[in-house]
Amino acid sequence: MPRSYPPVSFIGVPTDIGAGHRGASLGPEALRIAGLAEALAGRGIDVRDCGNLAGPANPWLPPEAGYRHLDQVVAWNGALMEASLRELRAGRMPVMLGGDHCLAIGSITAVARHCRETGKKLRVLWLDAHADFNTSDVTPSGNVHGMPVACLCGLGPEALTRLGGEAPALQPGQIRQIGIRSVDPEEKRLVKQHRLDIYDMRYIDEVGMKRVMAQALDGVDADTHLHVSFDVDFLDPGIAPGVGTTVPGGPNYREAQLVMEMIADTGRMGSLDIVELNPVLDDHNITAELAVDLVESLFGKSTLMRD
């Protein structure tokens, strides 16, 4: 029997407030144009598009005290946290259409709070080229899209680390990072100090994606809420050029499909971020179309019936 999925709610978050390039604010519309709602509805999933959240404009200013646009970042993440929590409490799966990756602070803070309310364990899969574990002390740029994992683990400004009233939202042991291939020099020290569980591209090359995913999903069971934070720059830029921070040497199409299919096989995905899609840098929306294809696999699309 095909697996059933909870009803899905799209939450558009059209901002590049935490990014170093303009354009991620157009990501939600690019995903809609690429047919994300139609693709999931075609799989029998109840899809509701909640439209786009509103928030402050990007002032495009230099960093202050190590952060760019902190007040605006807090405003957008607060709005997303409330919207995500509302959908979770209604029994729906929030799917965040980003937007840059700083927004995961809001979406994952909501999921962590919902897990505390419902007694679920939380596992976060962070699919990304970057560890996103910078702080104001070590960031080369001040861009908050390089800091969300650190903020979620309690390292950062109180306005973000205590966004949900609890600090931290996550323990490092709850997150698995896959596809990492760009970590800033001082960020490497922080990652090691906090024992972040990272499956970088060298390790993927050495042992293969199947074994990596089996390890990353180990312990996920019926009591687990699985949150997937999918940064489109996780993918090799040869197949996904439409991102602001391309890093060569990422997963190819088949490796990415295997990641998504093995996540789908668990049946435990309860929330999803799709971030950093930048149509300004794309080629005829091919990156958005690839993202839709991969998200379909997260929702059970496969070559054969495997249940």
UniProtKB/TrEMBL annotation:
Keyword flag Lipid metabolism: no
Catalytic activity: L-arginine + H2O = urea + L-ornithine
Cofactor binding: number and manner: Binds 2 manganese ions per subunit.
Superkingdom to which the source organism belongs: Bacteria
Cofactors that this protein relies on: Mn(2+)
Pathway: Nitrogen metabolism; urea cycle; L-ornithine and urea from L-arginine: step 1/1
Top EC group: hydrolase
Pfam families: Arginase
GO molecular function, one term: arginase activity
Keywords recorded for this protein, A-Z: Arginine metabolism, Hydrolase, Manganese, Metal-binding
EC number: 3.5.3.1
PANTHER family: ARGINASE (PTHR43782:SF3)
Family of the protein in this entry: Belongs to the arginase family.
Protein name per Swiss-Prot or TrEMBL: Arginase
UniProt organism field: Pseudoxanthomonas kaohsiungensis
Gene from which the chain derives: rocF
